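If it is no trouble, might I ask you for a protein's amino acid sequence along with its backbone structure tokens?
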Amino acid sequence: MSLSALPNRFDIAKGDEIAWTILLENDGDGTAYGVVVNVTLHPGLQLVEIDSPENALNWSLASLAPGQTEQIILKAKVVSTQGSYSSAFQARWGPTPCQEISRHSELGARTAIRKQPDQPRSLAVGEEIGFEISADLPKGARNLWINDTISRGLIYNKSSLSVQGPGLQRELAAENSDGFQQICWFFGDAGPAQTIEIAYDCLLENSPENQDGGFPDWNDSLHELARRPNSQDRRRRGRALTVVEPDLVLE
């Protein structure tokens, strides 16, 4: 009997989805009876779906004939930041302890940046809006800047800024010609296996373009890890009645 579990990616971060193709093949001469398969996911991973016979991480097959192959697709989501993610796959059959096989899947952590919340929201003029940025640095970084772009119509509340992780050394704020504001945080050198958490609030400005249900032209900002304080790259969305949080791009 042979067992393999091939992931579709080998470096992951919180929020990612990972899929394994699990193959169980009877490459012997006789039929294997009472086949039982068990999967143990790393605690930092959460099952999304699996097309096993019982739609569960543990399943059984009455028999597997010579040359017969059973293929299962397992999907999981990364729910916490870890240095690595190890999952175990085991198959056993027949009455004796020797009739079993195990495989381990070891996945590494990748450098990543996220901004939350990342879903549409309805806002009122004068309302404060909270944002959170987190950056995973499994290998560390040198001369690290984290850059964020704030849409026009929002007022950055500097006093609300909260940072966890390596100490913040410098903050720069610049008004761009298009009305967007760029906030840049400098952390210098950060050691490996560190996570930086940034939280701040913005106020929805009482301006003409925010009146009567109209909202500013919310943009797909470039929230990045960089070696320079400013970036002029950005992608725009059209006008909308709800705020759509920007996608994240890692430089």
User: Anything to note?
Assistant: DSSP finds no helices and 19 strands in the chain. The two ends are 45 Å apart (CA to CA). The first strand starts at residue 2 and ends at 7. The chain has a mean pLDDT of 83.
